[in-house]
Amino acid sequence: IQVNPASQLEMPKGKRQPTLPFSQDEWTNTLQAFPAYEKRARTGGAQLLYAFVLLLRYSGMRIGDAVRCEKSWIQDDKISFLTEKNNVFVCNKLPDFVLKALWTAPHKSDRYFFWSGNSTLHSAVGKWQRRLQVLFGIAGVRNGHAHRFRDSYAFDLTQIGGMTLEELRQALGHKSTRTTEKYYSHWLKERQERSEERRVGK
């Protein structure tokens, strides 16, 4: 036929469920899986994956930004970069143990922590996703994926750090607070409700 009769139809809009942060048990099991992972990937590979996991968990970076993370992005205890997805500037503080893991892990590049720079970034991201899946399999973590590290970081900032919506937007590198609100407003609302309950209790 010359004309597609379905071309005028609109795509259905599904409701995207927000992903969840790792539970404390899932995070503990992930860390405890590294000795078993080391037997499969050797010491250097395990050290590099450990540094990668810590960077994801305590920086809030998307996996693509973590894979292309340059050593020059880190100055003292802060990591600063422009996000690949929307070119937003991000500057976050990293804990000392994350910095130590990053600098002591073996690197194949003078420029990057986790990428040689010779392959495409897409290919490199795929390799790191597969390594994470092996680790999650050993740890027994169901539905484990890189974005849940980002969710765990956001959860800590809102529930423990008490960040506002705008502060969270900056930390995650969202272009608009509408995006931040779309995915994380439920945590901000829960924190606000608890804060109001405490004030009423006084």
Q: How confident overall, as mean pLDDT?
A: 88
Which stretches are poorly predicted, pLDDT < 50 over at least 5 residues? none
Instruction: Report the C-alpha radius of gyration, rounded.
Output: 19 Å
Q: Strands of the biggest beta sheet: in what spatial order?
A: 1-2-3
Q: What count of helical segments does DSSP give?
A: 8
Helix content: 55-70%
The arrangement of helices and strands along the chain is HHHEEEHHHHH
Q: What characteristic shape results from the CA principal axes? A: globular
Strand-pairing-aware structural class = mainly alpha
Biggest beta-sheet profile:
3 strands, antiparallel
Assess the beta-strand content as a share of residues.
5-15%
Can you give keywords for this protein?
single chain, 202 residues, mainly alpha, 3-stranded antiparallel beta sheet, 8 helices, globular
